[in-house]
Structure to design on (184 residues):
């Protein structure tokens, strides 16, 4: 199965992000993400055998157990590779960015010991909201107002299943964030 590790904002936050992005890029030039698919990827695992799942579960549970819940707030819209030649539209993170980065690094370290390839690009927390239908679109520089925040309470192991109507995500396991007892 094709898997990744993610943080999912609550449904209301996902809807607000997509609404803000659609208000900036109207029309059919962008294929928008399903509301249920909007997330922050911590680590893409790729094909994961059922034999490896017990080790993956143990590693992710151990990582999650080292963190208490923390707050994240989205900061604005951006694009890869650039605003003038946008192929991917995303919402960035400001508040809580350092915590998300630390969590992603711990996930990366734990899964590398299980044989998963380390990502070479620097990690930048973001939620993908849409992809250009054509070669690229221009993302206007505009203020979309205050974007939502939320409390991160768990990380999820997610299965990605392609279908005729796009990709569907199924959370296979959730790992609650809870610092070890005695941690302030």
């Amino acid at each position: 199965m094709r898997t990744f590790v993610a943080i999912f904002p609550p449904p209301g936050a996902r809807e607000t992000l997509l609404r803000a992005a659609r208000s900036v890029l109207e029309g059919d030039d962008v294929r928008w993400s399903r509301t249920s698919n909007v997330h922050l990827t911590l680590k893409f695992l790729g094909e994961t055998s059922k034999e490896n799942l017990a080790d993956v579960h143990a590693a992710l549970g151990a990582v999650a157990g080292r963190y208490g819940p923390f707050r994240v707030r989205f900061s604005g819209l951006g694009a890869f590779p650039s605003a003038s030649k946008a192929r991917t539209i995303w919402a960035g993170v400001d508040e809580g960015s350092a915590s998300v980065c630390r969590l992603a690094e711990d996930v990366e370290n734990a899964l590398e010991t299980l044989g998963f390839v380390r990502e070479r690009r620097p990690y930048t927390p973001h939620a993908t909201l849409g992809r250009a239908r054509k070669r690229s679109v221009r993302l206007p520089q505009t203020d979309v107002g205050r974007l939502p925040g939320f409390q991160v309470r768990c990380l999820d192991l997610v299965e990605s299943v392609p279908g005729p109507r796009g990709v569907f995500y199924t959370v296979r396991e959730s790992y609650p964030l809870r610092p070890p007892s005695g941690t302030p």
